[in-house]
Design goal:
One of its GO terms (molecular function) is protein folding chaperone. This is Heat-shock protein Hsp33. The protein has about 300 residues and is α+β, with helices and mostly antiparallel strands. The chain folds into 2 domains: about 15-260, Hsp33 domain; about 265-305, CBS domain Like (Alpha-Beta Complex), CATH 3.90.1280.10. About 30% of the residues lie in helices and about 35% in strands. The protein has 9 helices and 14 strands. The strands form 2 sheets. Strands 2, 3, 4, 5, 6, 7, 8, 9, 10, 11 and 12 form an 11-stranded mixed beta sheet that branches. Strands 1-14-13 form a 3-stranded mixed beta sheet, with helices on one face. Strand 9 (about 170-180) and strand 10 (about 185-195) form a beta hairpin. The protein starts with a strand and ends with a strand. Residues about 1-10 and about 200-205 have low confidence and may be disordered.
């Protein structure tokens, strides 16, 4: 699905959708988690790209992952995922701001994608490649970036492998994306084991923490997609259904939203860096079309105005 931007407005006419209960944080004595339910935002973003089902599912899982990770940001900025693959999918980019604004795009070989079923795994689609996470602090040059080789069958396993190699404490990650009741739905569950509050951890406390972590992960693995996508099942009730045998508390939910940040003025700045001959070669019938891969929006510039 594409939309041509004929007006002089700086921003494209894209859906203005915010879901107020997208991320629900919850806390155990030795771990913390985030329940991710993208609600109507998932369908709004995913259906706009009109990708094959297997690509759409991968995109929905990626959106769920960055939404959950970005919800822990303590500053203004964004959390982004970039995967460079050597399979039918060559590039995946997804990011989420501290406000919960989501966007993504995937590049894939359209001549080969028909060889894959709708349930093709991330590993099948990506083959080998790099998994990169970047924390971008707004208006600051010092950003954090981590990179590992793709390892795992699913995107959740690839993300877990990343954290096993970059963080001191383990993560348990589950990601889901399905066309549920004729609408794309996406979400997941991210769990993180945290350090004991005391600087000197006593052995019994450490052992109890480890047992609790194992129990939390076992219970988390009983989560079903049908529960996650049930709009009549509140997040607090779903968490209680999963973890009622343990002591935990639930935090304040956070928003997720459709959040492409492209603009006509920004793209015009890009065009201004090209030479006259390059611009002439880009123009067709006196017009230059710049497409935002995140929101599939075509900005049309008159050659005369550049």
């Amino acid at each position: 699905m594409k939309n041509l931007h004929h007006s002089n407005n700086d921003r494209p006419n894209v859906p203005d959708i915010t879901y107020g209960k997208g991320i629900t944080p919850f806390f155990f004595p030795s771990a913390r988690g985030r329940l991710i339910r993208l609600g109507p935002v998932a369908h709004s973003i995913l259906e706009r790209h009109n990708y094959p089902d297997c690509i759409t599912k991968l995109g929905g899982e990626a959106l769920s992952l960055v939404a959950g990770l970005a919800s822990s940001l303590k500053f203004e900025g964004s959390f982004s995922l970039q995967i460079k693959g050597k399979g039918v999918v060559s590039m995946l980019v997804a990011d989420c701001t501290h406000k919960g604004e989501l966007r993504f795009y995937i590049r894939y070989d359209k001549n080969k994608i028909n060889d894959f079923t709708e349930n093709a795994s991330a590993k099948t689609l990506l083959k080998k490649g790099l998994f990169v996470l970047t924390i971008d602090q707004q208006d600051k040059k010092d950003n954090y970036q981590g990179m590992v080789e793709l390892t795992g069958e699913t995107l959740a396993e690839m993300a877990s492998h990343y954290f096993e190699n970059s963080e001191q404490f383990p993560y348990s990650i589950q990601l889901y994306c399905e066309c549920y009741q004729n609408k794309w739905q996406a979400g997941g569950l991210i769990l993180e084991k945290i350090a004991h509050e005391n600087s000197i951890v006593l052995k019994p406390a450490a052992e109890n923490d480890e047992k609790e972590w194992e129990t939390i992960c076992i219970l988390a693995n009983t989560l079903k997609a049908s529960e996650l996508f049930d709009k009549n099942l509140a997040s607090e009730k779903l968490l209680y259904r999963l973890f009622n045998s343990l002591e935990f508390s639930v935090g304040k939910p956070k928003n997720v939203a459709y959040g492409c940040r492209c603009s006509r003025s920004r793209l015009q700045e890009v065009l201004n860096n090209f030479s006259k001959d390059e611009l002439d070669s880009m123009a067709e019938n006196g017009k230059i079309i710049m497409t935002c891969e995140f929101c599939c929006y075509d900005f049309i510039f008159s050659r005369k105005e550049i």
